[in-house]
Design a protein that fits this description.
The chain is of the alpha/beta class and about 270 residues long. The chain is built from four helices and 17 strands. It starts with 7 loop residues before the first strand and ends with a helix.
Length: about 270
């Protein structure tokens, strides 16, 4: 069975959404990504949303390009490129065409997704209820249920605490000490020691919380609020992992692929 006519619209182009796009692209599904005009992604080297900031991005064998209109997005997707369209709302010109709609914005709440927006509507993480505002929900919490497809009910509630990686949980997330504009002195993929200066937010210094590698940094020049997530340090210090799609993202992608194939087989 060929899937080239089964368009998937992916709302959100962060690192987890990119894992979804990767699995679907590998299986032959055309994917269009919808993003904000100023994406707030942290893991920019493995996020299709970076195409908004840089015009295009290559992630493993995925090539994404900024599309300037729904018509251009429809043209690009036929070439094997993943179009990234600036569109906080679902474009009316695309609404009749998608076969599947996936809300991968990870907002921990349902912003504006409805079950009647496509033949198959999937929500990632908490905030969605399968059978009410979408057809299926994908579990995003690390642990035994990660990547499960839920056809009735919702995902586990948001704990507000990042998952533990190499013994580091909340402390691996860099948050803005004050509101202002972010400036970085280091790049994603650089190794750091405890206390090393990463950059600043409007002059307030931001330091590495422990030894590791800088896995993610919000785009420099971004205006942020106090306490907002702006960076991520990984204690595993695996530089290559900063530039490849994560295990969690691939689990999300496998679940999305399962949900779509289950829907088609019905």
């Amino acid at each position: 069975m060929l899937f080239h006519d089964h368009l998937v619209i992916l709302r959100g182009g962060g690192d987890l959404a990119t894992g979804v796009a990767y699995r679907l692209h590998q299986a032959g599904f055309p994917v269009v990504v919808l993003e904000l005009a100023r994406p707030l992604v942290i893991r920019r080297k493995v996020a299709l949303a970076t195409a908004v900031l840089e015009g295009h991005i290559q992630i493993e064998n995925l090539h994404a390009q900024l599309a300037h209109s729904p018509a251009e997005a429809r043209q690009l997707v036929q070439t094997g490129v993943i179009p990234v369209l600036i569109s906080p709302q679902l474009p009316s010109s695309l609404i009749p065409h998608p076969s599947s709609l996936i809300d991968a914005r990870l907002a921990k709440r349902n912003i504006d997704t409805h079950i009647n927006q496509a033949p198959l509507v999937i929500g990632l993480g908490p905030g969605f209820t399968a059978g009410v505002d979408c057809h299926a929900v994908i579990e995003t919490m690390r642990g035994h249920r990660l990547g499960r497809v839920i056809w009735a009910g919702g995902a586990l509630p948001n704990t507000g605490t990042p998952g533990v990686i190499a013994g580091k949980g909340a402390e691996r997330v860099i948050r803005a000490p004050v509101g202002g504009v972010v400036n970085w002195r280091l790049e994603i993929g650089e190794l750091v020691k405890t206390g090393d200066l990463l950059g600043d937010v409007s002059g307030k210094m931001v330091a590495a919380p422990f030894d590791g590698v800088v896995r993610g940094l919000i785009a420099p020049g971004t205006a942020v609020t106090t306490g907002m997530k702006i960076g991520d340090v990984d204690a595993r210090a695996d530089v290559a992992a900063c530039f490849t799609i994560s295990d969690k993202a691939l689990a999300m992608g496998g679940a999305a692929l399962e949900a779509i194939l289950t829907h088609l087989n019905r």
